[in-house]
Amino acid sequence: MGVKKIFSSLLVTCSIAAVVSSCNSTSKDNQSDNNIENAEIEAKLSKQDTITIVLESNDKMQFDKTEIVVYDGQTVVLTLKHTGSMPKSAMGHNFVLINNTISVSDYANKAMKAKDNEYIPEDASLTLAHTKMIGGGDSTEIIFSAPKAGTYDFLCSFPGHYSIMKGKFFVK
Ligand SMILES: [Cu+2]
To answer: What is the 94 CA–ligand 1 centroid distance (Å)?
Structure first.
């Protein structure tokens, strides 16, 4: 390889590196802007005494959120909406926040046997908060105090729904 060829391939490498690094710096700037914005939203939300959550569910057995974030000491006002049209007996949904002493699947297995109690297990220590079961077109609200800081699970306890209808509930 001649000197001239090495030089020209070096030039190509440098110009590619320059393009890549300028791309990187652009996306980093955007990223840090987003982080600042998110930090501002978080700072604002964390100072509120009450936090409002709207969780939607549908006829396809889905929640519209897989993560909910609240802050230690807050009062949580949670509205569960069922945007579908199927009846409660076929496509009922609830929101259940479970204690982190039990897994989602173990809880769901106990819930399945509690039909007479709207699929909420009788052992009250397992459930931190729950709405009633609703059908298509319905909406329901619950108000509860955020549990102590940590990561919790929420689910719909209608038989068979928890495998899709579940998410993480973070208390920061
Ligand atoms: Cu459900």
So the answer is: 6
